[in-house]
Design goal:
The protein has about 160 residues and is an all-alpha fold. Helices cover about 60% and strands about 5% of the residues. The protein has 2 domains: about 90 residues; about 45 residues, no CATH class.
């Protein structure tokens, strides 16, 4: 745990840290990913709590620190997952990860001119889908515009 006096805390905060540290370390050992040291999670949780203000000002410091440890463990899992996916992409460039079929592979096989034509057609189709003809012949760009009682678009 180290020397608590070295970070300039009041005596009652040091006592609180000494009381909470062992159960929080056991809790962190349960919720932490295998690659993360539980002690690192506990220390980071204490540092974050101390940065916010004195520990003694917290109504329920144990609950606050447990939630912080749980969030830090979740962040670690997310980071490891992103790193794993990035490594898979680096190992197999141009190939979609297993279980996620992608149209990008087919698109990348096309020549650049053919890709540009497809993109222009898609843009035109999207615009046509979004724009609607009103009963008076005007075009409305917003498909989600409210309609009046006779079914025509309401113009503001």
């Amino acid at each position: 745990m180290g020397d608590v006096r070295s970070i300039g805390l009041a005596a009652d905060e040091r006592t609180l840290i000494r009381q909470l540290y062992p159960p929080l370390q056991r809790y962190a050992a349960v919720v932490a990913p295998a690659d993360v040291d539980p002690e690192d999670l506990v220390q980071e949780a204490f540092l974050r709590a101390i940065r916010k203000g004195p520990l003694c000002d917290l109504n329920h410091p144990n609950a606050y620190l447990r939630k912080t440890i749980c969030n830090l463990a979740s962040n670690s899992r997310r980071r490891f997952s992103r790193e794993r996916r990035a490594l898979l992409r680096l190992d197999n460039p141009g190939v979609a990860p297993e279980g996620y079929p992608s149209d990008l592979d087919d698109l990348m096989r096309l020549r650049p001119v053919a890709r540009a034509v497809l993109q222009c057609e898609k843009s035109r189709d999207d615009h046509m889908r979004r724009s609607r003809r009103c009963s008076d012949g005007r075009r409305s760009v917003c498909a989600a515009s409210p309609r009046g009682p006779n079914g025509s678009f309401v113009w503001n």
